Amino acid sequence: MSEDQHLTVEHVRGTVSVVAVSGEIDYHSSPALRSDLLALIEEGHSDLIMDMSAVEFCDSSGLSALISLWHRARAAGGSLTLTSIPAAVDRLLSLTGLDQVLPASPTTQDALADHPALRKADGPAGT
Protein backbone atom coordinates (compact mmCIF):
# COMPACT_ATOMS: atom_id res chain seq x y z
CA MET A 1 0.00 0.00 0.00
CA SER A 2 1.13 3.54 -0.65
CA GLU A 3 1.35 6.26 1.97
CA ASP A 4 -1.82 7.76 0.45
CA GLN A 5 -3.84 4.59 0.89
CA HIS A 6 -4.59 2.18 3.70
CA LEU A 7 -6.29 -1.18 3.56
CA THR A 8 -7.79 -3.28 6.33
CA VAL A 9 -9.22 -6.74 5.78
CA GLU A 10 -11.71 -8.57 7.96
CA HIS A 11 -12.39 -12.20 7.07
CA VAL A 12 -16.09 -12.63 7.82
CA ARG A 13 -16.78 -16.29 7.06
CA GLY A 14 -15.83 -18.73 4.36
CA THR A 15 -14.88 -16.86 1.21
CA VAL A 16 -16.33 -13.52 2.36
CA SER A 17 -14.04 -10.68 3.44
CA VAL A 18 -14.70 -7.01 4.10
CA VAL A 19 -11.99 -4.74 2.75
CA ALA A 20 -11.95 -1.15 4.00
CA VAL A 21 -10.00 1.22 1.77
CA SER A 22 -9.01 4.72 2.82
CA GLY A 23 -7.15 7.46 1.04
CA GLU A 24 -6.72 7.66 -2.71
CA ILE A 25 -7.14 5.03 -5.40
CA ASP A 26 -5.05 6.51 -8.18
CA TYR A 27 -2.15 5.95 -10.55
CA HIS A 28 0.29 5.60 -7.66
CA SER A 29 -1.76 3.47 -5.26
CA SER A 30 -3.94 1.31 -7.50
CA PRO A 31 -1.20 -1.22 -8.44
CA ALA A 32 -0.67 -2.08 -4.75
CA LEU A 33 -4.42 -2.28 -4.12
CA ARG A 34 -4.85 -4.58 -7.12
CA SER A 35 -1.91 -6.75 -6.07
CA ASP A 36 -3.01 -7.06 -2.43
CA LEU A 37 -6.60 -7.93 -3.30
CA LEU A 38 -5.64 -10.34 -6.08
CA ALA A 39 -3.53 -12.17 -3.50
CA LEU A 40 -6.55 -12.28 -1.20
CA ILE A 41 -8.67 -13.78 -4.00
CA GLU A 42 -5.93 -16.33 -4.76
CA GLU A 43 -5.95 -17.33 -1.07
CA GLY A 44 -9.63 -18.27 -1.40
CA HIS A 45 -11.26 -15.04 -0.20
CA SER A 46 -13.05 -14.51 -3.50
CA ASP A 47 -16.14 -12.71 -2.17
CA LEU A 48 -14.98 -9.18 -1.43
CA ILE A 49 -17.09 -6.43 0.07
CA MET A 50 -15.17 -3.18 -0.38
CA ASP A 51 -16.06 -0.38 2.06
CA MET A 52 -15.15 2.83 0.26
CA SER A 53 -16.44 5.29 2.86
CA ALA A 54 -12.94 6.68 3.52
CA VAL A 55 -11.84 6.90 -0.13
CA GLU A 56 -10.91 10.51 -0.83
CA PHE A 57 -10.19 10.25 -4.56
CA CYS A 58 -10.37 7.77 -7.42
CA ASP A 59 -9.07 8.22 -10.96
CA SER A 60 -9.19 6.07 -14.09
CA SER A 61 -6.35 3.88 -12.79
CA GLY A 62 -8.43 3.19 -9.71
CA LEU A 63 -11.44 2.31 -11.85
CA SER A 64 -9.25 -0.04 -13.88
CA ALA A 65 -8.12 -1.74 -10.67
CA LEU A 66 -11.74 -2.17 -9.52
CA ILE A 67 -12.75 -3.68 -12.86
CA SER A 68 -9.75 -6.03 -12.78
CA LEU A 69 -10.64 -7.15 -9.26
CA TRP A 70 -14.29 -7.64 -10.20
CA HIS A 71 -13.29 -9.84 -13.17
CA ARG A 72 -10.80 -11.86 -11.13
CA ALA A 73 -13.25 -12.38 -8.26
CA ARG A 74 -15.92 -13.59 -10.69
CA ALA A 75 -13.44 -15.91 -12.43
CA ALA A 76 -12.72 -17.44 -9.01
CA GLY A 77 -16.45 -18.00 -8.40
CA GLY A 78 -16.74 -14.97 -6.13
CA SER A 79 -17.85 -11.38 -6.26
CA LEU A 80 -16.86 -7.79 -5.61
CA THR A 81 -19.41 -5.46 -4.04
CA LEU A 82 -18.69 -1.79 -3.39
CA THR A 83 -20.25 -0.16 -0.34
CA SER A 84 -20.51 3.31 1.19
CA ILE A 85 -19.34 4.93 -2.04
CA PRO A 86 -18.46 8.62 -1.61
CA ALA A 87 -20.39 11.05 -3.83
CA ALA A 88 -17.39 11.96 -6.02
CA VAL A 89 -16.56 8.30 -6.69
CA ASP A 90 -20.22 7.49 -7.25
CA ARG A 91 -20.37 10.28 -9.84
CA LEU A 92 -17.30 8.87 -11.60
CA LEU A 93 -18.84 5.38 -11.65
CA SER A 94 -22.05 6.86 -13.05
CA LEU A 95 -20.31 8.95 -15.73
CA THR A 96 -18.38 5.92 -16.97
CA GLY A 97 -21.36 3.56 -16.80
CA LEU A 98 -19.57 1.34 -14.29
CA ASP A 99 -22.41 1.85 -11.81
CA GLN A 100 -24.33 -0.51 -14.12
CA VAL A 101 -21.59 -3.16 -13.97
CA LEU A 102 -20.01 -3.10 -10.51
CA PRO A 103 -22.41 -4.26 -7.79
CA ALA A 104 -22.93 -1.76 -4.99
CA SER A 105 -24.73 -1.59 -1.68
CA PRO A 106 -25.47 1.44 0.51
CA THR A 107 -23.61 0.03 3.52
CA THR A 108 -21.31 -2.84 4.39
CA GLN A 109 -23.98 -4.24 6.74
CA ASP A 110 -26.50 -4.28 3.88
CA ALA A 111 -24.00 -6.06 1.64
CA LEU A 112 -23.32 -8.66 4.32
CA ALA A 113 -27.03 -9.22 4.95
CA ASP A 114 -27.69 -9.67 1.23
CA HIS A 115 -24.62 -11.73 0.35
CA PRO A 116 -25.62 -15.11 -1.14
CA ALA A 117 -22.63 -16.95 0.36
CA LEU A 118 -23.65 -15.84 3.84
CA ARG A 119 -27.38 -16.42 3.35
CA LYS A 120 -26.68 -19.96 2.14
CA ALA A 121 -24.54 -20.59 5.23
CA ASP A 122 -27.34 -19.29 7.46
CA GLY A 123 -30.02 -21.47 5.86
CA PRO A 124 -31.92 -24.21 7.69
CA ALA A 125 -29.99 -27.23 8.84
CA GLY A 126 -29.73 -29.92 6.24
CA THR A 127 -29.92 -27.60 3.21
Descriptive keywords:
single chain, 127 residues, alpha/beta, 5 helices
Describe the protein in words.
The chain has 127 residues and is an alpha/beta fold. The protein has helices at residues 30-42, 60-75, 87-96, 108-114, 116-121; strands spanning 5-13, 16-25, 47-58, 79-83, 104-105. It has a five-stranded mixed sheet with strand order 1-2-3-4-5. It is globular, with a radius of gyration of 14 Å. It starts with a strand and ends in a 6-residue tail after the last helix.
Strand order of the largest sheet: 1-2-3-4-5
Continuous helix count: 5
Report the portion of residues in β strands: 25-35%
Overall average residue pLDDT:
91
Helical content stands at 40-55%
Shape: globular
Span between termini: 41 Å
Largest sheet: 5 strands, mixed
Judged by helices, strands and strand pairing, the structural class is alpha/beta
Overall radius of gyration? 14 Å
Number-wise, the strands total 5
> How do the SSEs run, as a string of H and E?
EEHEHEHEHH
Give the low-confidence spans: none
Task: Describe what is shown at a glance.
The chain is α/β, with parallel strands linked by helices. It has helices at about 30-40, 60-75, 85-95, 110-115, 115-120; strands at about 5-15, 15-25, 45-60, 80-85, 105.
